[in-house]
Automatic annotation (TrEMBL):
One of its GO terms (molecular function) is tRNA (guanine(46)-N7)-methyltransferase activity. S-adenosyl-L-methionine binds at E44, D69, N103, D125. The gene is trmB. PROSITE patterns: SAM_MT_TRMB. This is tRNA (guanine-N(7)-)-methyltransferase.
Length: 260
């Protein structure tokens, strides 16, 4: 991937240490110290230009968010999105958001076991050639790493416009014996889901009429227990399987204050 950006990109991102992290090593196992609180931490792997992670942080000030990408220019663009999103709320610096420059290949060196509560995979590179399958972010080798860093409430939320990647991912999640729920083969078939935060790519794909595929994987022990309890209760009440657990992605924007 080649990106053209403005001059002074590195200087720009180096000047924002309160938002941008260029070296993850010192923070492994200490990300709550970076944020200065014990709120749950959600991460987006491959955040692109940062619209999703910025909007999620504004809508959910009770959660800490980390957007990860490996390109300086995308980090810079995401910082602009973040400041614009929070600036609209009258907040100068995003209080619950970090933008991290890192290679996801080494995610086990970025986060300690159980440090993360949710992973968002949004429109990851499908790597369509079979010989590149191990590079797909839903390959079992990555899922094993995710399972290590997720805590007892841990979940993975995955969206893509690639049918082939979604099929591959279903098999990967199944191979790892992960509990899947809220599987959708056409997320916006009944109209744009305004209860969910969209990415830049997603908005464009929906306008073109592309199908958006989505699923959630329940991984943490407490999250699994809650899911199974809800499933039994739903079955006892004669509910359909797709009503057992409502989509748990935060959606409704609370009132934002300068205190976050």
């Amino acid at each position: 991937m080649r990106l053209r950006g403005r001059k002074g990109i590195l200087e720009s991102i180096q000047s924002q240490p309160e938002l941008i992290v260029l070296d993850a090593a010192p923070h492994k196992g200490r990300w709550h110290e970076f944020f200065g609180n014990k709120q749950p931490i959600y991460i987006e792997l491959g955040m692109g230009k940062g619209r999703f992670i910025s909007d999620m942080s504004v809508r959910n000030p009770h959660i800490n968010f980390i957007g990860i990408d490996m390109y300086d220019e995308l980090i810079r663009r995401a910082s602009e999105k973040a400041h614009a999103a929070w600036g609209a709320q009258g907040v100068a610096e995003p209080p619950n958001l970090a933008l991290l420059r890192a290679n996801i290949e080494s995610i086990e060196d970025i986060f300690a076991p159980g440090e993360i509560e949710r992973i968002h995979l949004n429109f990851s590179d499908p790597w369509p050639k079979s010989k590149h399958a191990r590079r797909r972010l839903t390959h079992p080798r990555f899922l094993a790493k995710y399972s290590e860093i997720l805590n007892e409430q841990g979940e993975i939320h995955f969206k893509t416009d690639s049918q082939s990647l979604f099929e591959f991912s279903l098999n990967s999640f199944s191979e790892m014996e992960l509990q899947m729920r809220n599987i959708s083969l056409h997320l916006h078939k009944d109209g744009l889901r305004d209860d969910l935060v969209l990415t830049e790519y997603e908005s464009k794909f929906v306008e073109r009429g592309n199908n958006i595929y989505r699923l959630e994987a329940v991984i943490g022990s407490e999250a699994l227990s809650r899911y199974r309890t809800a499933k039994k209760a739903a079955q006892a009440n004669g509910q359909e399987s797709d009503t057992i657990v409502a989509t748990s992605e935060p959606s409704i924007a609370p009132t934002i204050t300068s205190e976050g």
